[in-house]
Design goal:
This protein is of the alpha/beta class and about 270 residues long. About 45% of the residues lie in helices and about 15% in strands. Strands 3-2-1-4-5-6-7-8 form an eight-stranded mixed beta sheet, with helices on both faces.
């Protein structure tokens, strides 16, 4: 059985994926930013799946110190992580910037997975067949350095699209650097029936299960055992590996993104 950490798993496709994976008997680590929701989700999944091997951690992913604290807690309690699903994301928020003055979408959608993944790397390396699934989007837009650093204010839509492209670019770079870790970026589908989509657009096109089902498959199916450094697009009903935004294949732009990221975080 696998030990699986899913960020943002107290609601939406993260919660549905956690519940489905728990039914297979895996050790599920729930994450959320609200302790009551985390506890409630753990209880619900345990009851529905008849699997008591469900634990949880609380962290506000826009707060980088909170991420470090969760990494420390996880490292003290969990010997390994077989599958990390960087699912948590934000589009619309009453808060525009985090404590470091970064746009909240960049902070949660890009910097948080970056920090969390590197923080948990020793636990990931302890797995015989580790996988990382990074939640991208059909919305991808060229990353502006001054927007990335918080020096320039842009719209929610634009910062969301840029943050998702940044995550996808880094995902590809990470896959090259750590070929022993199966790292896949995925667009789980557009306008799924989740709170984020409904708050942002006031509508949805597809059930949330469309997204959670592909997370489940990418996480454990042998079909995707050798798919590292690829982008899966669930934008059509069947879903397939496809080309992401052109910047994902531009090594110069990737190098610039990674350099600016390190500079901002330092």
């Amino acid at each position: 059985m696998k030990t699986i950490l899913i960020t943002g798993s107290t609601a939406g496709i993260g919660k549905l994926a956690a519940a489905k994976l728990a039914q297979d008997g895996h050790h599920i680590i729930v994450h959320g930013r609200n302790s009551e929701k985390v506890s409630k989700t753990i209880s619900e999944i345990k009851t529905d799946s008849i699997n008591n091997n469900v634990t949880g951690f609380v962290s506000e992913l826009s707060d980088f110190e909170s991420i470090k604290a969760m990494v420390s807690e996880l490292s003290a309690e969990i010997p390994k992580i077989d599958i990390l699903i960087n699912n948590a994301g934000v589009f619309k928020s009453d808060i525009q910037y985090n404590q470091q003055g970064l746009d909240l979408r960049f902070a949660v959608n890009y910097f948080a997975p970056y920090l969390l993944t590197y923080g948990l790397l020793p636990l990931i390396h302890n797995s015989d067949s580790p996988r990382i699934i990074n939640l991208s989007s059909a919305a991808q837009s060229t990353v502006e350095t001054d927007a990335l650093s918080g020096a320039k204010s842009i719209s929610n839509q634009e910062s969301y699209a840029q943050s998702k492209l940044a995550l996808t670019m880094w995902s590809f770079a990470f896959a090259k650097h750590y070929p022993q870790i199966n790292t896949i970026a995925v667009n789980p589908g557009s306008l799924l029936n989740t709170r984020m989509a409904n708050e942002a657009y006031g509508q949805h096109w597809s059930p949330a299960s469309k997204g959670s089902d592909i997370l489940y498959d990418l996480a454990i199916s042998e079909e995707y055992a050798n798919s590292t450094g690829m982008y899966f697009d669930k934008g059509n009903p069947k879903g397939t590996f496809a080309n992401a935004h052109g910047d994902v294949y531009d090594q110069t732009k990737i190098d610039e993104l990674i350099a600016h990221t390190a500079q901002i975080l330092n």
